Amino acid sequence: MQKALAPEISTWPDENPQLIGSRCAACGATTFPVQQWCPRCSGGEMTEVLLPRRGTLVAWTTQGFPPGAPYAGPAGKDFVPFGVGLVQLDDIIRVEGRLTENDPAKLQFGQEVELTMVPLTTDEEGAEIMTFAFQPIDKGA
Questions:
Q1: What is the separation of C-alpha 113 from the centre of its chain, rounded to a whole number of angstroms?
Q2: Nearest Cα to 21, choosing from 40, 43, 49, 52?
Q3: E-strand spans in 51-141?
Q4: Cα gap 77→67, rounded to integer Å
Q5: Running DSSP on this structure, what letter comes out for residue 127?
Q6: Nearest-5° Cα angle at 17, 85 to 141
């Protein structure tokens, strides 16, 4: 069995999941995750929008140590460094998220990436906890 770490932020388990953001009716600003109030104009007319699945890699690093709370993944000797990237989704928004690639030498500015879901940990009942990540797209895809 699989469960989403944060089920409210994506359409997973759809076959082609999308992140769920919000857009301000007053100024057009887009946020992720969904916000009740616009961070740009403080307007309260936010509507949910599905964000593009593909984007381009703007910046990246390797997370070499377990993040602080509320991190729910492996720690101590079970921790495996993972890539983190800033991804530009069309001209809409930049989203920070895990990368499926943790070797910086295999990443490049402007590289096309696509949203996917990856296992993070296992809960007390044995369910695999899934989170979103961006994976590099093969040039032939």
A1: 11
A2: 49
A3: 54-63, 82-89, 93-99, 112-122, 128-136
A4: 14
A5: P
A6: 70
Torsion of CA 133, 116, 103, 112, to 10 degrees: -100
pLDDT tens string 43-91: 999 999 999 999 999 999 999 999 988 888 899 999 999 999 999 999 9
Token pair, residue 133, equals: 């990540």
What is the value of pTM for the model shown?
Answer: 0.91
Cα-based angle 117, 19, 2 (whole degrees, multiple of 5): 35
**Do 90 and 64 form a contact (C-beta atoms < 8 A)?**
no
Cβ atoms < 10 Å from Cβ of 99: 26
Q: Report which of 12, 46, 54, 4 is spatially closest to residue 29, judged by C-alpha positions.
A: 46
For residue 141, pLDDT beyond 60: no
* Dihedral (CA of 61, 66, 69, 75) sign: positive
Identify the band that residue 140 occupies on the pLDDT scale cut at 50, 70 and 90. Answer: low
Instruction: Give yes or no for a contact between 72 and 91, defined as CB atoms under 8 angstroms apart.
Output: no
